Structures are given as C-alpha cells and as structure tokens.
Amino acid sequence: MIQKFNIFLLIVTIIALTGVYTLKFSIEHTAGEKVALEARIAEQEAELSLLKADWAVLTQPGHIEPIIRRHQDVLELAEVKPEQFGSFSDLPMRPAAPDAAALNDLFQALEAGVDPIGAILEEIE
Amino acid sequence: MADITYGGHAPIALDGARKVRGNLTEARIRWMILAIVLGFLLVGGRLVQLGLVETDTTIEGQTRDAIQASRPPILDRNGIEMAVDIRVPSLYAEPRRIINVDEAVDALRTVLPDLDPQWLRNRLSGDKGFVWVKRELTPDIQERVMRLGIPGIDFITESKRFYPGMTEASHVLGAVNVDNQGIAGIEKYMDNENVALLQELGLARGNALAPVQLSIDMRVQHVIHEQLTDALSRYQAIAAAGVVMDVHTGEILAMVSLPDFNPNEPATALVKDSFNRITSGIFELGSTFKTVTLAGALDSGSVRLTDQFDARFGIRFGRYTIDDFHGKHRILSVPEVYKYSSNVGTIRIMQAWGKDNFRAFLTKVGLDQRIPLELPEMRDPVVPKEFSEIVAATASFGHGLSVSPLHMAAAVSAFVNGGNYITPTLYHRDASEAQALYKPVISPQTSAQVRYLMRLNALEGSGTRMNKLAEGYRVGGKTGTAEKVVDGRYSSTKVLNLFASVFPMDDPQYAMVMLVDEPKAENPQSGTTAGWNAGEVTGRIVSRIAPMLGIAPDFSEAVDANLVPPALRLTNIQ
Questions:
Q1: Could you give the ipTM of this predicted complex?
Q2: Which of B85, B165, B218 sits opposite A49 (nearest CB)?
C-alpha cells in the first residue's frame, strides 16, 4: 500500500518537475523575446527621434526662407504687398443681367443664316 | 528479532542491542540536523552577503536614469518644434574588463582618429568600472566600433537636446549641458520647475513627457531675427534686439537679441556680449519714456490734451541747462510736445503733474521692479527711490534711470490696450486667463489719447520713415535716441536707439520694442537718430509680420481720423 503510494508520489514529483522546468524555460524564452523586442523598439525610437528632428529642421521658417530666396526668380515669387490684400466688401456688385433680347435677336439671325459679326469681319477685309 | 535469543544472557543482549541501535539513530539524527542547519546557515549567510553587496548603478556619479532621461519637447504656439530630443549612442569603457589596453587604443583610433592616444591610454588603464570615451556619436560610428569587437567597450543610448531653429530663438530657449540639464533660458526655468525632479526619479524616460508650448511664434521670431541681422550690417551697429508682445494677453511672440549663440553648441552661450538685451540688459531708454510721462500726466487729470506748454527756452537746474534736440522754441500743445519730442515740454508736463506722482506712477506700471518672466536671465531696473527736481526732470524724457526694453513693451501694451497692465509671459495664456490678471493703470479714455499720440507721431513726427515702410498697417510709435555714457559723460556720437510701437492703432494687437545699439548712418544722406534705424527696422518688420498675424491693411483715412480724441476734433490747434 505504502509502496504504491510512494510510486505515485514519485511519478507526481517527476511530472511536477518537468512541468516546472518547461514553464521556467518557456518564461526565459519569452523574457528573451521581450528584451529583443524592447531593444528593437528602442532602436526604432532612436531612429524616429532623428527623423522627427530632421522634419523639424526642414519645416523651420529659417530653413525654408533661403530656399525660397534661391528660387525666387524662377518661380516668380515676391513678398506680398499691402495693396494686394482685399476684402469682400471691396468686390464689385454682380453686373446687371445680360441683355436677353439682344442675344435672342443674335441667335435668331444666326439661325436664319445671317452672321452680323462675319459681315463686320468681311467689311474689314 | 525475537528469535535472536541466547538463553540467560538474552535479556541483557537484547537490552544492549536496542540501546546501541537507539544511540546510533539518535547520533545519526543529530548529525543530520547539524548538516541541515549548516546547509541553511550557508544559504542564509550567502543571502546576507548578497544583500550587503551594493551594485554600482551610477555612471561617473550620476544615475543611469539621469543620463538617459529625456526632456519634454518645446513647441511654439503653432506647434513647430523649437527643441527636440534625439537618441544618440555614447561610447564608454569598463577599464577593469579591458585585457590589452594598447590594442584597444589602436583599434579605437582607427574609427575615432581625433582621440589623443595618450589620454585614451590613461583613460582605459586602471581598475575603474566605468569611464566615458566619447559621448554623443552617430549610429554609423557605433556600428563601426561594435565591429571592432573590443572587450570592455560598449555603448549606452543617451538623450541629446537638439534645436532645429539653430540660433533663431537662442535667448528664449537657452541651452542644456552634456548631461541634459538646463543651463540657460527656458530650459533652466523648466528644470527649476519640475523636469529635474522627474529625471531624478527616473520617470522622465522615453518620449512620454508632454510637450511644453511656448507663446513664441517661430514665423515672427524668424522675421525679426532676419531683419535685425540685416540691421546689424546695414547700420554697422554693435547690437540689435527686439521683442513683440500681445497687448491683450501679455504673451511674447518673439524675442531676439543679437549677437546671439547657437544652443546646439552650449559653449557659445558663454561668449561675451551675447546676453539677452531684452530682459537682462537695462538701458536709459530715452524719448520712448515720454510716452510713460504723458500717459501718466494725462491720466492724472492735471494735464489735458488741449493744454499748452512753454518750450521757448531751456530749463536750468543749477549748472545744467536742459534743452531740446530739434528745438521748436515756441509754445507747444501736448500733441506737439510728443510729436517734436520736446524735452522741455515733457519736463513742464511732468512738473505740472508733480514729481512724486510721476515716481508713484512708475511703480504702478511696474517700471521699478523685476518682471516675473520665465527666464532666469532677468535684471532689476535701476530707478532712484526718491526723485529730486533734476532727476525727475531727466527721468521724464528717459535719462537717469535704466529699465529693460521688456519693461517698456509691457508699459506700452498697458497704455494702448485700454489701460490694463498685464505681466509678460513666455507660456501660452488665453484672453480669459489674462483678464483675471489685469491691473488697471490708466483709464480707457487716457488709453485712447495715448493711441492718438502714438499714431500722430508716426504720421507727422519721428515715426514717418517707419510708417512709409509699413503703409496700411496703422502703426504708431515713439522713437528714443539715448546718448550713451562714455567716460562719465553723455556722448553725442555713441547712441542707443529705440522704437516702441504698436499696431494696428485702431484696434491694438501687438506692441514691439526694437533696439539698435551704436548705429552708424546707412549712407551720407541718412542720420543716426532712432527714426533712421530702429524706426525703419520696425517698419520693415511690421510689413512682414502683420499679414502673418492676420492683420489686413487698411488705407482709408477715416481710421486715423477716428483716433483723434473729441476734444481735438473741434479746436484744431496748430
């Protein structure tokens, strides 16, 4: 009876041992993966920080102005003058509606085969 | 066991055997216990030993966290980066792990030839656990050093501060040292506030820190930096500086002081003469101070805009006579005193108001205290505690007392925004926050009169050159040409020129103070007074920055006509 129980305990111990060691190694493996990932993240963050710094330099007004000055002539760029600003109130009102009757006459004449503008041009020639 | 019996001797033998066995077992158990106790003692002792070992996590006296600590990025008001952190590898060595020093020195010098071999040999020999070899290298060099495979040589990633704007906002930002601690400017201020604590605790790692937003507008900052650099060469001046401030919120949009330094090379910050002239330079501001005198006098009620003052003769104080620079030598009205920048007229106005009232007014507009701006580089103004007759007289036109240009910008802002003093700031502040901090110094009516006077000076007085360059943006301002003291006397050739201005005058938004130190005439036809240099620079700057700040030009004459106070509209004094 005791002998059987001992054998049972032995088997349980072996199983537990294997289990614990498997768990240990798998955790070590995961931890290793984590460290590798962290290193990669750190590396990418470092690269990202450099790219961000690059971007910050390239978008700086002090960096853009010399480029504009260099290409000013080719691109025909100039500083905006105060006179070039306008407001909505400065816009003229919509012009009066086109002369509908005169246009109708013109279209009717064209349909009838008479071309008043052509006649004017011929006269000039 | 019962069968092991030997007749009459049996009981003794049995007894003895059991005793012997019993003794043996007892002895075995005792030995076992001893062994186990010894075993535990061993484990326990080792534990105590391990517990006592202090692992050295510091790097040359600093914690690893402090070295890898990052600083929050600094942004301008539109989100443009002004300071960012970049991660860079730094090369270090563990001398106690280096086997062959000479070999290591030779190998390292193939990649880093500028290292001194003798210095490197000393550095790598010895029994130290950690020494820096070279800090803040490029990833490319890191790769090449790693390929050498020298034992005891390794890299650590450090945070390095980088300023993409280079010199442009140097005086605002300041700089950090190689250990990422702020040594000047807003960087130092941030350290004093809280960043240093976070770094100590090891919390400031990675990019987790929330960015700090300043009130600076990098576009405006750039234009001013560019225009002042131009002014330095155009007028062959020794220095130039300028500040732009929002009159309603007190936010500083730009602050430039030339000569400046490159914050990416902190050593250049220590060069003489590169101090911040806006905050830590105090000067006799000359005629720009007349704005202060007139605003106070008009607000007191003892002087009215329609009053006339006798400026026919100079005023004598003992041995000294104070006279006007471009004297009209006649009776002047208050607007004329301002327009012609009459010293005599200003003294008469101050005297009508009272010198003690004048002195009290300077305290009211904060001209005799340090401004609590977020920069460590601040200086106390020098204003006499009590004014004697002559000191009050000279002070009324800006001599005999020294304040910083920032003081003038803050005072002018208060005079035009309806009369409320607001402390300048470099951090973002919205209108409602600002209103809670308002301190009334003059009445809104006086504020309107000051606006009229400043615009009048731009239209007819010393600001006309400025106004021509910024037509349409309704700039108003006052010049100041202060003679510098050379060997205890005022020099007529060495002058400090200022222009304090506000735009647009019909709805004031921004106040500016521009300073040009010891300018020379641009060409033989031009002069050296403030209108020719500080004034013109202001005009050029306004024409560039006004569109950026959303101020549309307006050429209608009604704008200027509306600025004239009702008292002057009917009785047109000539």
A1: 0.70
A2: B85
